[in-house]
Amino acid sequence: MATTRKGVWDLQQVRDQYLAGEWVPQNELWAWGRNNQGELGQNNTTYYSSPVQVPGTTWSSINDGFNFSISTKTDGTLWSWGLNQYGQLGQNNQTQYSSPIQIPGTTWSSISGGRFHSLSTKTDGTLWSWGFNYYGQLGQNNRTSYSSPVQIPGTTWSSVVGGSSHSLATKTDGTLWIWGNNQYGELGQNNTTQYSSPVQIPGTTWSSISSNNSAEYSLATKTDGTLWSWGSNSFGQLGQNNLTYYSSPIQIPGTNWSSVSAAALASLSTKTDGTLWVWGANNYGQLGQNDRTQYSSPRQIPGNTWSSISAGNSFSSATKTDGTLWTWGRNQYGELGHNNTTQYSSPVQIPGTQWSSISTGKEVSSALKALVQ
After folding, report:
1. What's CA 2's distance to the chain center, in Å?
2. Nearest to residue 26, comparing CAs of 4, 50, 51, 2?
3. CA distance from start to end of the chain
């Protein structure tokens, strides 16, 4: 790896090597929290309240479902581990694994774990799903569960997200598609009808999308920087300054929203100026406001260098542009990574300065750390 001194990259040289195919980014994968289903990938079911490394240094993305995890490597392979009651690990069985096991294929791209189902795109633009399908969340025009990946029609899929029992995906043309359970209007179709095949939400400028393995609502941004929400709103998680459910997308004020992350009952979003905003349930301090007050409109967490975000079921994680990682909220199983089970209602730093992408599941956290020589 190109460096000028230990721990400092010569970025131009790295760029040249990367474009020439001579260097591939190296990332370690770390996990912590509850582990009763082996979801930390440690080949055991021991709980860890501090980050522990999952073997390997070529991880590229991570996503935590409900007591299971899926992750890609830089060679395009896809790996899964943890709970497998409904075949959500894609192994053509229902065997639980406490260490990463490969799903066949070498061209996997974006990934997402829902409550009991998984989704992933490939580099050819195809979209695949597997696991529990009672509500049609696999998009197969049926309600049959599958323990191996099955393709959803189309070849222009780009990003994908799994909710509690529904799914979202964007296409390269900026359209947004959704399917599965719709009890609370989480499909954004202005009704509560279930759909077992993708149906389009109006618009062609959709950008980032989010739901959660326990969420019955959805969030999405558009390319103009607007932020939209729909579905269940019992704790103000739609950010509308009310508790009204909406079955069609409704805008949250502002035009410079960037990334979004939906928890079970709370929401996080960054703006292009690096600020971080939160709203919804706050019974464990997951909104980072140094209180446990519920807010149904966006509230800012101090700072303007926030980068990636991830909302867990009752806790939150975020990185800053300096590579630091911060967590807050519920901590019953050590999911905050502070070597304790103390709840925090304000962000607290996890040691290290090379953290990049992060993911939070039911009561677990995962994060990639850039390997620098």
Report:
1. 31
2. 2
3. 7
Question: Which pLDDT tens digit goes with each residue over 328-337?
Answer: 999 999 999 9
What stretch of H or E contains 356?
strand 355-360
Joined tokens for residue 314: 């009752």
What whole-number distance in Å separates Cα of residue 69 and Cα of residue 78?
11
Instruction: Let me know if 9 is exposed, middle or buried by CB neighbors in 10 A (0-12, 13-18, 19+).
Output: middle
What's the per-residue H, E or C state across 116-185?
Answer: CEEEEEECCCCEEEEECCCCCCCCCCCCCCEEEEEEECCCCEEEEEECCCEEEEEECCCCEEEEECCCCC
* 184 within 8 A of 163, measured Cβ to Cβ: no
- Closest CA relative to residue 127, chosen from 79, 169, 174, 73: 169
Structure tokens belonging to residue 324: 């630091």
Q: How many CA atoms are closer than 13 Å to the CA of 314, on its beta-carbon side?
A: 14
Residue found under tokens 């149906």: 199
Task: List, in order, residues 6 or more apart from 198 with CB less than 8 Å away.
Answer: 139, 152, 154, 169, 177, 178, 179
Domains of the chain: 3-370 (2.130.10.30)
Q: Tens of pLDDT along 266-317?
A: 999 999 999 999 999 999 999 999 999 999 999 999 999 999 999 999 999 9
Distances (CA, A) of 328 to 47, 52, 85, 187, 341: 18, 19, 30, 30, 11
**What DSSP state is assigned to residue 274?**
S
365, two tokens: 């956290």
Distance (Å, rounded) from C-alpha 283 to C-alpha 180?
29
Examine the pLDDT at 67 and tell me if it is beyond 50: yes
pTM over cut 0.90: yes
Nearest to 270 by CA among 207, 194, 178, 353: 207
Measure the CA–CA gap between 135 and 138, rounded to whole angstroms.
Answer: 8
Report the b/e string of 39-73 with b at 16+ CB within 10 A.
bbbbeeeebbbebeebeeebbbbbbbbbbbbbbbb
Cα–Cα distances in angstroms (integers) from residue 135 to residues 46, 131, 154, 194, 295, in the given order:
33, 11, 21, 7, 31
C-alpha radius of gyration, the chain, whole number? 19
